[in-house]
Amino acid sequence: FMPAWNLEIIGTYAQTEMGHGTHLRGLETTATYDPATQEFILNSPTVTSIKWWPGGLGKTSNYAIVLAQLYTQNKCHGLHAFIVPLRQLGTHEPLPGITIGDIGPKFGYDEMDNGYLKMDNFRIPRENMLMKHAKVEPDGTYVKPLNAKLTYGTMVFIRSFIVGDSARSLARACTIAIRYSAVRHQSELKPGGPEPQILDYQTQQYKLFPLLATAYAFHFVGAYMKDTYHRITGNIQDGDLSELPELHALSAG
């Protein structure tokens, strides 16, 4: 608790693997519960199970929320989330059983150190499983959540806010381009006449105005998605899961 309180923990979300992205049921990372020690043993059993692409994993993060297939009492209970330490807090060196690094150059987004993660018999305490909706008892007994789809809530949250974030990024770009087009003058239309703003050219308007309209559309859709997310998650807290499929469909579209 104290390292987190003192802002010493830098986290990332490790879901995507080399062989699987949005097909969550296909994820291969395993977390096997050992009741003798009350620990989970995390493994990346195949090359395709290596976590691939989490932002901040390459050089920055020292902890991760890892999605893995939960095994207890010789049965798989599907994907669950675990808090996994990755690097020493003092030296930032990888912990034993952790292979981690940067995935290297990409086509764009180079400011983000996207990384990879491989785990070999890496043990974490039972308490490191996120147990708000489902849990594993000390003896290994699995307690089901109200709805199995609640496991996917993290990605629903992120997806619900992507539209609004895109609107702000596009709006900033449009503001810069339109302001520049208003102050930049180019070419006389008549000899000796003033040079018009390049914003007066229809070809420039054709490039910029549809993007400006798109930014407004993204803004309003983003606001709707934000309100919808908070409303439906509030209902979920009260035990009403009826609109969870709609939220998942809207955010995945």
From TrEMBL:
Keywords: FAD, Fatty acid metabolism, Flavoprotein, Lipid metabolism, Oxidoreductase, Peroxisome. InterPro entries: ACOX_C_alpha1, Acyl-CoA_Oxase/DH_mid-dom, Acyl-CoA_Oxase/DH_mid-dom_sf, Acyl-CoA_oxidase, AcylCo_DH-like_C, AcylCoA_DH/oxidase_NM_dom_sf. One of its GO terms (molecular function) is FAD binding. Its cofactor is FAD. It comes from the Eukaryota. GO terms for biological process: fatty acid beta-oxidation using acyl-CoA oxidase; lipid homeostasis; very long-chain fatty acid metabolic process. GO terms for cellular component: peroxisome. Residues 13-121 form the Acyl-CoA oxidase/dehydrogenase middle domain. Residues 152-253 form the Acyl-CoA oxidase C-alpha1 domain. It is found in: Peroxisome. Pathway: Lipid metabolism; peroxisomal fatty acid beta-oxidation. Belongs to the acyl-CoA oxidase family. This is Uncharacterized protein.
